[in-house]
Amino acid sequence: MSVLERLKSGWTALKFVRVILGILVLQSGIAEGQTFGIVLGVFFTAFGLLTDGVCCAGGACYAPPSKKDTTPVTENIEYEELGSK
Question: Fewer CB within 10 A of the terminal residue: the chain, N end or C end?
Answer without folding.
Answer: C
